[in-house]
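Backbone-to-sequence.
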């Protein structure tokens, strides 16, 4: 069994009853509002001085299998991949049922169960693939490998509280190997690629439209705060290829292989990432250089527009979901001004770190977003993580975008609040469109999790029509 570690960068203490009111209020509101860029949730305020073993605060009876909203979202994230054969319903629900048995035992036991049970399911399905391949059933083997790949990804998801844990790389390797083998055996046409970037390479996959004999529009897609290039196949790639697009899915700094095996961390100037990617892709045969689309998922809804402000070879951008200013969103979630939050971070830094370390021990959402964020951004304390967010802004960049931008929003925007509309309003009127998904149509979760068919239909219909203009 893999046991989760406490936040190691700062001492973990319970929040004392004499905590400064503004700081205590901030942390309680963060518990209620969720944290930028991670799993969704609307937990009620937790009790600051809760003893060890207290059930996590992020709970609601209106979820599937789990009481905790972040676990519920991550389950839906996996279930949504059934649409493209990346998971199966019964396997996923049975795994979730076993994990849910640990919910009442506190944060660390349930996160250990999350790892153990998804890993066990992945191993079992991987073994089915091995046996099917041995017996000469390539499609059955490939489909099993693809499901196992997703389950290995899920098993690794909450491990980033201890970046030295070898299980992080081991599970990534299994996820990656099964993904590649699964695509190969199921007949998907693809190339695994390495894109030159600042003395190293960025890992990715190129999926060609048709046989590559004609120049086709190309979607360059990347994730945001926590996704992988492999996930882009299920969420964007498969649907795009069916519609006649080439697809390049890649891991930028802070994402996928880049952070796990190369130690590359997020950077706000995403144009420095995208420009070499564009250089690489337009040199390929079968790519129409006049029909390049950049598609950013989750926090990628900031990264992609930021790149487009400087990279003018793009024909269109999709920001799913749109993000204007990450630090502004942090302040809005805390119901503070950016100035007040900045004052707190710079003038009460030590207290802030201690209080966050104590609070997150009782909330899965905050625990994961804080520990994963410090790892992916390459910082060592919660305050440094929040300070790093200050550079992630479209202020001064939004009005420099010269291509159409589709800003995607969801009605139940769990942790980006009004950011999509904020980005839309800042864009030049001639280069913007807004697309909102609702909960009533089953698409209200972050990035339309669990509603892949509807999401792809509307987004790619817009792209088809936009790229057809002027031809």
């Amino acid at each position: 069994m893999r046991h989760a570690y406490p936040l190691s960068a700062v001492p973990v203490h319970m929040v004392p009853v004499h905590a400064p009111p503004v700081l205590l209020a901030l942390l309680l509101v963060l518990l209620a509002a969720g944290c930028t860029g991670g799993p969704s949730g609307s937990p009620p305020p937790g009790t600051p001085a809760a003893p060890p073993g207290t059930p996590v605060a992020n709970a609601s009876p209106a979820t599937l299998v789990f009481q905790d909203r972040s676990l519920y979202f991550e389950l839906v994230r996996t279930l949504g991949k059934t649409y493209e054969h990346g998971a199966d319903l019964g396997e996923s629900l049975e795994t979730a049922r076993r994990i849910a048995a640990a919910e009442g035992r506190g944060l660390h036991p349930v996160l250990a169960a999350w790892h153990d049970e998804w890993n066990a399911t992945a191993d079992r399905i991987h073994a089915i693939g091995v046996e099917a391949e041995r017996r000469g059933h390539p499609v059955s083997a490939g489909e099993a490998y693809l499901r196992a790949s997703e389950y290995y990804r899920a098993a690794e998801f909450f491990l980033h509280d201890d970046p030295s844990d070898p299980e992080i790389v081991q599970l990534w390797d299994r996820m990656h190997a099964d993904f590649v083998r699964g695509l190969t055996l199921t007949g998907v046409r693809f190339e695994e690629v390495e894109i030159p970037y600042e003395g190293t390479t960025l890992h990715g996959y190129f999926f060609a439209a048709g046989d590559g004999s004609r120049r086709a529009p190309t979607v360059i897609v990347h994730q945001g705060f926590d996704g992988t290039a492999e996930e882009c196949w299920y969420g964007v790639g498969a649907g795009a290829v069916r519609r006649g697009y080439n697809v390049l899915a890649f891991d930028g700094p802070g994402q996928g292989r880049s952070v796990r095996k190369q130690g590359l961390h997020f950077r706000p100037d995403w144009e420095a990432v995208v420009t070499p990617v564009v250089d690489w892709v337009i040199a390929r045969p079968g790519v129409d250089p006049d029909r390049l689309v950049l598609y950013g998922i989750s926090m990628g809804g900031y990264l992609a527009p930021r790149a487009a402000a400087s990279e003018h070879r793009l024909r269109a951008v999709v920001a799913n979901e749109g993000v204007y200013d990450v630090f502004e969103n942090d302040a809005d979630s805390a119901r503070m001004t950016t100035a007040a939050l900045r004052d707190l971070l710079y003038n009460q830094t030590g207290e802030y770190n201690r209080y966050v370390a104590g609070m997150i021990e009782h909330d899965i959402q905050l625990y994961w977003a804080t520990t994963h964020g410090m790892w992916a951004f390459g910082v060592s304390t919660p305050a440094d993580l929040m300070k790093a967010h200050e550079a992630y802004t479209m202020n001064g960049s939004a009005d420099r975008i010269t291509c159409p931008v589709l800003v995607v929003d969801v009605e139940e925007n769990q942790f980006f609040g009004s950011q999509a509309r904020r980005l839309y309003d800042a864009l030049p009127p001639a280069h913007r469109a807004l697309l909102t998904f609702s909960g009533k149509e089953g698409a209200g979760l972050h990035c339309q999790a669990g509603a892949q068919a509807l999401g792809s239909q509307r987004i790619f219909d817009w792209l088809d029509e936009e790229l057809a203009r002027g031809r």
